Amino acid sequence: MKQPLTGILPVAPTPFFDNGAIDPEGMKRVLDCMIDQGVDAICILANYSEQFLLSDEERAILTRVSLEHVAGRVPVIVTISHFANDITVRRAVEAQAQGAAMVMMMPPYHGVGLVPPEHAVFGQFKAVSDAISIPIMVQDAPLSGVPLGVPLLVRMAQEIENVSYFKIEVPFAADKLAALIEAGGKDIIGPFDGEEAVTLLADLDAGCTGTMTSALQPEKIAPIVRDYRAGNIDAALDQWRLCLPLINHENRQCGLRAAKVVMKEGGVIGSDHVRAPLQPLSPRTRDRLLQLSRELDVIALRWGK
């Protein structure tokens, strides 16, 4: 990438058949739908892709299918998180070799009893950077349970060559983004937020340059980022108010299941199956999700019809 990546970088859901097997053809349709949503990049194999429920063989298939099918139409970010340094490095090398524009990784984590010290966290990111030449996005999320203080993140940006993008989705994300941008300066190339953009306005106020949402309504959220960064704050606020009910319902009630339910309803994929121990949405929650999605006329709800 010659220019810094900004805008909206949604996470692609992983489609399964009703029997739980991965659906590679459905994956291609998901990617095509997302490109038609006008995204600036696509992230695969993230938490909202159910990456923690995929085998290594399935990951390899989905990586190959996704990168071959997108074929450079938009940048693809491949999530490579793992507790083991060697596996994380191998995933990064394989992703770059197949055409990934960026990799994203959480710090190594495996429950509260196995939280590595700062030097080990730094060491894993350094090992990945030494093995590749594409940018690394640090995912700072509560799921890991590994604290990533601003001084550590700034040190990583300054001392690890390819660490330059940051997805901040912890409580009080705006304050952390502001502190990171102030302390890191030019080394913080891509400060992003996450959590389905539920804190997007505050995070834009803090200086973030983009958001990593789900694939539910990126075409509706993208104008918020673009208008805000162009100085059209009133337009951004108006669009934020329009999107917020669906953002909130997804973030607080649905999680990763929302995009799959809407994409099934819209004919993008044939099943909204999630792998156990995850459970389907209740009919009550699903009905509200579809109502709010229809009110916004989201692309995913009509793309395959």
Automatic annotation (TrEMBL):
The keyword Lipid metabolism does not apply. GO terms for cellular component: cytosol. It holds the Pfam family DHDPS. Keywords: Lyase. It comes from the Bacteria. Signal peptide: none annotated. InterPro entries: Aldolase_TIM, DapA-like. GO terms for molecular function: 4-hydroxy-tetrahydrodipicolinate synthase activity. Pyruvate binds at residue 212. Belongs to the DapA family. PANTHER family: 4-HYDROXY-2-OXOGLUTARATE ALDOLASE, MITOCHONDRIAL (PTHR12128:SF66), DIHYDRODIPICOLINATE SYNTHASE (PTHR12128). This is Dihydrodipicolinate synthetase family protein.
